[in-house]
C-alpha cells in the first residue's frame, strides 16, 4: 500500500483526522493498520463510526461552552459602534429634502 492510497483513504474518511487531533492514534499507527489490513477491513468501522458520534458530541459541548453574557456584551458594543457611525456620517436624504430650486427667470439686481 502506498502513501498516496492512504491519503486518498483519509480524504474519503475525514473522521480519521479527528482521531489524530484528539490523540487517540497517530498517523503512523493509522498507516500501519491501513498497510496491514487494507481499506475494506472491519477494523475501520471502530474508528469511522465512533468519530461520527463524537462530532455531534463535540458540537453540543461547543454550544455549552458559549458564554451568552459575553455574546450579549459584544452585540451591545457593536450596536453602540453603529450608532456612533450614524452620527458621524451625514444623512444624504436630509440634503435632498431641503433642496429648493432657484427660479429660472429671476433677475438679480445690483
Quick overview:
The chain is built from six helices and no strands.
> How many domains, as an integer?
1
Unreliable residue stretches: none
pLDDT average, as an integer? 81
Output the helix-strand order. HHHHHH
Helix content percent band: over 70%
* Alpha plus pi helix count: 6
N-C termini distance: 99 Å
Shape: elongated
Give the class from helix and strand content and strand pairing.
Answer: mainly alpha
What fraction strand?
Answer: under 5%
Radius of gyration: 32 Å
Q: How many runs of DSSP E, i.e. beta strands? A: 0
What can be said about the biggest beta sheet?
Answer: none
Question: In words, what does this structure look like?
Answer:
The protein is mainly alpha-helical and 110 residues long. It has one domain. The protein is built from six helices and no strands. The protein has helices at 3-12, 15-22, 27-37, 43-65, 68-88, 92-97. The longest helix has 23 residues, at 43-65.
Characteristic key phrases:
110 residues, elongated, 6 helices, 72% helix
List the helices and strands and how they pair.
Elements lengths: L2 H10 L2 H8 L4 H11 L5 H23 L2 H21 L3 H6 L13
Helix pairs in contact: 2-4
